[in-house]
Write a structure and sequence with these properties.
Strand content: 5-15%
Distance between the termini: 88 Å
Structural class: alpha+beta
Shape: elongated
Helix content: 25-40%
Largest sheet: 7 strands, antiparallel
CATH architecture of one domain: Roll
Radius of gyration: 37 Å
CATH class of one domain: Alpha Beta
CATH topology of one domain: Chitinase A, domain 3
Length: about 350
Amino acid sequence: MKLSLITATLLSSLAAPALHAQETPPPAAPAPVPAPAAAPGTPGADANLLPAPAAEVPDGFQSEKERQSYALGSFLAAREKNAAANAGAETPTADDVIAGLKDVLSNGKSQGYAVGAQLALQIRRAEVDVDPEVLSQAVRDALAGTEQKLNPQQQQAVMQRIQNELQARVQAKRAAENEKAKKAADEFLAANGKTDGVQTTASGLQYKIEKQGDGKIPADTDMLMLNYKAQLTDGTVFEKSADTNPARKPFRILPKGIQEGVALLKAGGKAKFWVPPALGYGEPGRPPQVKPNAVLIYEIEIVAVEPLPKPQASGTQPNRQPVTAVTPPISVEIPAKPGEAPKVEPAPAATPAPAPAGGNK
C-alpha cells in the first residue's frame, strides 16, 4: 500500500494551515538595532556584532519531539471534536482515543489496522447497519484481488440504495429537529406575549414600543437609517449596526416581520420586536448562526427615513453636445545656419472634422 487513508487524511489536514500560512505571511520583523561600535583597541572592535536572538518562552517540554507531539495531538483531537459536534454525534472519550492511538503508534498494530479502524468509524458515524463478518470478507476479497460476489453494476445499485437510505434518514432527522424548534418557538412566544407591555399583531409579531417618533412612517419605497441589534432567544447576536453610525437598509429587504414592525413607528421611533419563524427566516434559517424555525429578536431605532434613489433607465445616455475634432496648430522649428537665429514656421491651419452624416442641411 503506497499511501494509507490515514496518512493521506493526516497530510491533507496538516497542509491546510501550512498553505494558509503561505498565503498570509507574517509581518516582517523590525530591523535589528546595531550594537554601538567598540572603541579602537577594544577586543572585538572589528567584529560584526548582532543582537542576541530573543529567548523563547519556556513551555515545559524537554525536546522538540515532545513539543511537536503535543501540538499534533491538540490539533487532531480538536478537529475530531469539532467534526463530532457538526455531525451531532457524541465526542469520543479520551480513554478510547488514547487506547487506539497507542495501539497503532506503539507498533502493536499495523498501519492497516488503523485504516480498518477509520473505516469502521466512518460506518458507525453513518449509522449503516452491516454484518461485520460479511464486510470483512468483502475487504479481504477486494485487497486480495479475488473475484467479487457483486459485479460493478450490482455494487453500484446497492451503493445507490445505501445513499438513498442515508438521505432519507437525514431528511427525517432534519424534519424532527425543525418540528422541535418550532414547538420551542411557539412556547417562547406564548410566554413572551404575556409580558407586561408586549403587544401581538394578527400575524403573530410581538412588539414593545419605547418611543413612537415624530417623523415619516417607513414605506416600501424608502431607505431606512437604523441603529439596531438582532439576536436569538439564547442571546446570540447575529447582526447589528456599527456603534459609530447607523446602517442603511432598504425597507423591502428587511425580514417580513421587521417590515411590519417598523411600519408601526415613525422616524425617530424606537421599539423591540419578537419575530416568529414564519415572519423571519423560517425553516431554512440563515446558517450558520440562525437555526431553522428560530425566533428573531430585534431592537431598532429609526434614525431617518429617506426615499430610495431612483434608478437610471437602462439604455439611455445623458444629453451631450456634439464634439468637433480640431487638430491644434503645431510650430515646426527649422535648424538655423551657423550664426543665424532659429526660424519657426507655422503649421497649416487646422481643418475641422467633417460633420456627422445625417446632420442639419
